[in-house]
Amino acid sequence: MIQIFGTNKSFDCKSAQRFFKERRIPFQFIDLKEKEMSQGEFESVFSSIKKQSGGKAEAVEAMTDKNSKDYASIAYLDDEDKVEKLFENQLTLLKLPVCRNGKTEATVGMQQKIWETWS
Fold first, then answer.
1. Structure confidence at residue 96 (pLDDT)
2. Cα 33 from chain centroid (whole Å)
3. Alpha carbons 116 and 61: distance in angstroms, whole number
4. Model pTM score
5. Rounded to an integer, what distance in angstroms lies between the CA atom of residue 99 and that of residue 105?
6. Is 35 helix (H, G, I), strand (E, B) or coil?
7. For position 21, which CATH number holds?
8. Total domain count, the chain
9. What's the rounded Cα separation, in Å, for the pair 118 and 107?
10. Strands 98-101 and 2-6
11. Residue among 47, 76, 73, 72 at smallest CA distance from 62
12. Sign of the torsion formed by the C-alpha atoms of 115, 69, 59 and 84
């Protein structure tokens, strides 16, 4: 089952939901305003992105929304602290949508090319 973490107001989150709906791929939408990712969910997303991007620093870079008004608060932290801040401030710092396919595959942002391989 595919999970989409995001907000109802985000254009990209709505686009992700439409992408899966149009292809009749079942998904669960989790509104980060109501319920954030658990530590385990976040770690599985992070390890998947780390595997795709080639390392911890690259994964942090890929997952962070640089347009966020809170970006300045983590821009100069070291990677370990950035990961912690991303987890603590999912709603304001994560690039959305965060899509999970099981425990091993995940994407951040709009990644239709990857999602097409999930069906």
1. 98
2. 14
3. 24
4. 0.94
5. 8
6. coil
7. 3.40.30.10
8. 1
9. 11
10. antiparallel
11. 47
12. negative
Could you identify the residue written with the tokens 């990961």? 83
Q: Tokens for 84? A: 């912690």
DSSP E strands, 7-109:
27-31, 98-101, 105-108
Query: Whose structure tokens read 């999912």?
Result: 90
Q: What is the pLDDT of residues 44-85, one digit of tens each?
A: 999 999 999 999 999 999 999 999 999 999 989 998 999 999
- Show the tokens assigned to 85: 């801040």
Q: How far apart are CA 65 and CA 104, in angstroms?
A: 22
Beta strand ranges found along 32-97 (DSSP E) = none
Structure tokens at 57: 């620093």
Identify residue 69 by its one-letter amino acid code: K
Burial of 25 (0-12, 13-18, 19+ CB in 10 A): middle
H/E stretch holding 93: helix 90-93
Domain interval for residue 78: 2-116
